[in-house]
């Protein structure tokens, strides 16, 4: 009779199973760099903060607002680095990041960093700046502290550093900049 033997049936099942299982295996194995993406790391060093601060301070120093101020007043503008908020959900030392901005401002040479003793202005104006409200008290505080620009920002959930520069007397936004803190991971 032309029946199928048990050995033949068993061999056929093994062959069919191997084809079925091999079709489920991905050659990509989920590696993003093989799909045209790169993996990034969120382990930030002091050097990463320095690079980000220098990049954004250079951009701000070359902005129209700073150039106009220097042309009109024939002096270097005084910049107060305010709060940098961490909205990323990861531990990021924003106080250290703020100090890197202060260092970058001093080293850039086109602006002056306002000393920590004048940060009383920042505490006085924190609520006003958050809503960008123009008040006489804010203008007086800025003038008394010798502050021309107020730099503040945040680290976003996608690890971008967003910074804005405000006119210290009016609270109006004069410059905005952004850079990524993420970097390719080393394998």
Summarize the topology.
Elements: H1 6-24, E1 40-41, H2 46-61, H3 64-73, E2 78-86, H4 94-108, E3 112-113, H5 120-131, H6 136-145, E4 149-155, E5 160-167, E6 173-180, E7 183-184
Parallel strand pairs: 2-3, 2-4
Antiparallel strand pairs: 1-7, 4-5, 5-6
Helix pairs in contact: 2-4, 5-6
Explained architecture:
By secondary structure, the chain is α/β, with parallel strands linked by helices. It has helices at residues 6-24, 46-61, 64-73, 94-108, 120-131, 136-145; strands at 40-41, 78-86, 112-113, 149-155, 160-167, 173-180, 183-184. It is elongated.
Q: Would you kindly provide a brief summary of this structure?
A:
This protein has helices spanning 6-24, 46-61, 64-73, 94-108, 120-131, 136-145; strands at residues 40-41, 78-86, 112-113, 149-155, 160-167, 173-180, 183-184. By secondary structure, the protein is an alpha/beta fold. The strands form two sheets. A five-stranded mixed β-sheet has the order 3-2-4-5-6.
Number of H/I helices: 6
First-last Cα distance: 62 Å
Q: What is the share of helical residues?
A: 40-55%
Which sequence of strands runs across the widest sheet?
A: 3-2-4-5-6
Total count of strands: 7
Main sheet makeup:
5 strands, mixed
Principal-axis shape equals elongated
* Average of the residue pLDDT scores: 76
Annotation keywords:
elongated; two-stranded antiparallel sheet; 6 helices; 187 residues; alpha/beta
């Amino acid at each position: 009779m032309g029946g199928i033997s048990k050995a033949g049936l068993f061999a056929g099942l093994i062959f069919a199973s191997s084809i079925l299982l091999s079709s489920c295996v991905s050659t990509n194995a989920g590696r993003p760099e093989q799909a045209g993406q790169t993996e990034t790391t969120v382990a930030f060093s002091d050097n990463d903060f320095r690079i980000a601060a220098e990049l954004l301070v250079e951009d701000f120093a070359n902005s129209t607002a700073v150039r106009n101020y220097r042309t009109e007043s024939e002096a270097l503008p005084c910049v107060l680095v305010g709060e940098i908020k961490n909205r990323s959900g990861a531990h990021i030392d924003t106080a250290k990041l703020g100090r890197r901005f202060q260092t970058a401002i001093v080293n850039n040479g086109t602006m002056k960093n306002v000393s920590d003793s004048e940060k009383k202005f920042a505490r006085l104006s924190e609520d006003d700046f958050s809503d960008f409200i123009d008040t006489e008290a804010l203008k007086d505080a800025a003038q008394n502290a010798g502050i021309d620009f107020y730099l503040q920002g945040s680290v976003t959930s996608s690890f971008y550093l967003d910074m804005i520069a405000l006119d210290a007397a009016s609270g109006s936004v004069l410059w905005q900049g952004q850079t990524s803190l993420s970097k390719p991971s080393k394998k």
